[in-house]
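note to self: dont lose this again. the chain is below, predicted strucutre after it. 143 aa total, dont forget to put it in the shared folder this time
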Amino acid sequence: MTLQKSLSFALLALAAILIAAAPANAQQMVKGSFNLPFEAQIGTTIVEPGQYDITLEESLGQKLVRLHAVNGSGDMTFLSGPSNRIEQRDNSVLKFVNVDGVERLKAFESGTLGQSFTFPLWKVKGDRSAHVGAETSLLVASR
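---
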């Protein structure tokens, strides 16, 4: 195993440990719900259409987005990327972008916090020339 692969594995293991430990220390910042009308990719996970609850939490200095399918089972947790300041408003928005025919989560804009959290647009291995298409915004109802 090369040094680069070993380092990547160690970072992935550390991220998994931090996510697993997060519920005990997490501070909930935003809570809402939304209807996802299409299949989407968030990080490396495919999310089915349906009604979801969403929370944005902060734990150990990281922002975590948790999704819970209202009529499904299991929770999904994603680390957000860097954040940018946006104008404060009453609602929050999920922004998806179509990349090679797949809707991928690009950003979560929290109007109440006045911050936009970005997510990496993971590419398929070997995909050098991704075609980026239209952006879709979904309103998140605050709870």
